[in-house]
Amino acid sequence: MTATWTAMRLETETGSLPARLYGVRPDKGSAPLVFHLHGGAFTGGTLECGAFIAALLAEAGAVVVSADYPLASDHPFPFALTAAFGALATLYRRRAEFAGRGAPLYVAGEESGGNLAAGLAMMARDQQAPHLSGQILVSPMLDPRLATASIREAEAGVCGCKWADGWQKYLGSPEKAAHPYATPLACSRLQGLPPALVVSAQDCPMRDESARYARALEQADVPTEFDLLPGPTHWPDGFAAAPEKPASWGGTLRTLFSRFFESTRTRRRTPHSSVL
């Protein structure tokens, strides 16, 4: 897979965010417009780390703006989320320029970027703007307790592992773990969120929290699809695979993205779960 992108910046109330633009505005009509956020356990990751997933989203038919965001080492919650929300609002105002008039807007992210995408969906719902057509969460980091079976299977979760350290730096203080925008899995009010595609893998440490969040969304009557890919995928480190080196799961993920765009645009979604 060859990823073609253009460097750009998105303005926010706290400054501008470096970003990459993938895909091309259609000559007629509109394409899905996706605001994408890379992984990196809140403390690392770059636009290049997000290139593989961003390119898959573009190959699935979307125009993708993949943004960098302030890392938790220097900017704990809610700094990154606030900056990302400002960028999302900018993107909504400019959606016709990027993807055509009336382009549906989505948020997407993997690992820590998936956490931010889920938080953005909640903020957009609560502020009643911008309107989102869907959220795409790929093995999102959602639970700072790090006590699931999939975390234990990965021999992670103890102090010193990158996810434990990432959560500690992102939250900054223990009381922020109760904030639904910071820890979406702890949220008790999920009604009214946009349709969700949640994807994880058998060998991913975030497998169980991804599945739990998908179930919670379904129970809140949010149209939700949960897909579990077979291993080995080497997620979440595999997300940063170079675009020119396709992973075995790349085609499957691209198909899931394309199907989600089509189903949400036509408003004929039927919630379901599947194991691929």
Characterize the structure shown.
This protein is of the alpha/beta class and 276 residues long. The protein has one domain: Rossmann fold (3-Layer(aba) Sandwich). It is built from eight helices and nine strands. Strand 8 (224-229), helix 8 (250-265) and strand 9 form a beta-alpha-beta unit. The chain starts with a strand and ends with a strand.
SSE inventory with pairings:
Blueprint: E1 5-12, E2 15-22, E3 33-37, H1 51-59, E4 63-67, H2 79-93, H3 95-99, E5 105-110, H4 112-127, E6 134-138, H5 149-153, H6 162-171, E7 196-201, H7 207-219, E8 224-229, H8 250-265, E9 272-275
Helix pairs in contact: 2-4
Would you kindly provide a brief summary of this structure?
This protein has one domain (5-275): 3-Layer(aba) Sandwich (Rossmann fold).
N→C terminal distance: 22 Å
Low-confidence stretches: 268-275
Share in β-strands: 15-25%
CATH architectural label: 3-Layer(aba) Sandwich
Order of helix and strand elements from N to C terminus = EEEHEHHEHEHHEHEHE
Number of DSSP-assigned strands:
9
CATH class: Alpha Beta
Which secondary-structure class do the elements indicate?
alpha/beta
Total domains: 1
Number of helices: 8
The largest pleated sheet is described as: 9 strands, mixed
What's the Cα radius of gyration? Answer: 17 Å
Could you tell me the mean pLDDT?
92
Keywords for this entry:
276 residues; Rossmann fold; 8 helices; 32% helix; disordered C terminus; AB_hydrolase_3
